[in-house]
Amino acid sequence: MTLQNVEWAVSPGLTPYQPALAFMEARAAAIAAGGANELVWLLEHPPLYTAGTSAKAGDLLSPDRFPVYETGRGGEYTYHGPGQRVAYVMLDLTRRGRDVRKFIQSLEDWLIGAAAQFGIEAGIRDGRVGVWVDRSGGREDKIAAIGVRLRRWVSFHGIAFNVDPDLSHFTGITPCGISDPRYGVTSLADLGHDISMADFDVALHLAWTQAFGDVTRANPPRLQAAQP
């Protein structure tokens, strides 16, 4: 069933984290109260690390490298920065049967479908969150991360897909707590695909319609200025 009134917005440039988080939490509350449409919000952040609810202090290897933000999403430490498409997904799961497992699977299908449009065979792995690709020598690299939270059955936070970020920035953390040298991080550019963010957004939009249904284009959010 396709649900109407899911908005799709893209913010240009780099969006500061704290105002984005404040907007996202307010929008999720408004959706739960029936006062706002659902929203998929695409953006890029300046370089920063975020700590999920399972983050371990020892996994923050370079605490002074970039700003570090505690966040209520699931998961451990992750990196956000230029060249990485972040999508904050604010959906009302009550409208979708309150099936969290199906929701996460749909997010995975969305990311896998986006990668497939560039000839990349990506998939999920048992015991490891996110979307992964096989590399040579038995190595597997993560190309997209998933970290969501639910409040009153409305989702927020979302996904991060590596289009062309500086992969060296991931060395300041143990990404998602996975230190096994067989598992690393990759991107479309690292895999040999020179894709603009605008072109990737087209693929992401098409894959969304296949996994979730149609959306309505909307203007990007207007954010409050960050606190000094």
Description:
The protein is α/β, with parallel strands linked by helices and 228 residues long. The protein has one domain (7-217): BirA Bifunctional Protein, domain 2. It is 21% helix and 31% strand. It has 3 helices and 12 strands. Strands 1, 2, 6, 7, 8, 9, 10, 11 and 12 form a 9-stranded mixed beta sheet that branches. Strands 4-3-5 form a 3-stranded mixed beta sheet, with no helix packed on it. Strand 7 (122-125) and strand 8 form a beta hairpin. Helix 2 (100-116) packs across helix 3. The longest helix is centred in the middle third of the chain and has 17 residues, at 100-116.
Secondary-structure-derived class:
alpha/beta
**How many distinct domains?**
1
Using only CA atoms, what is the Rg?
Answer: 17 Å
CATH topology-level name: BirA Bifunctional Protein, domain 2
C-alpha end-to-end distance = 45 Å
CATH superfamily: Bira Bifunctional Protein, Domain 2
Q: Helix tally?
A: 3
Range of helix content: 10-25%
Total beta strand runs: 12
List keywords for this structure.
transferase; 12 strands; 3 helices; BPL_LPL_catalytic; alpha/beta; EC 2.3.1.181; 228 residues; Octanoyltransferase; globular
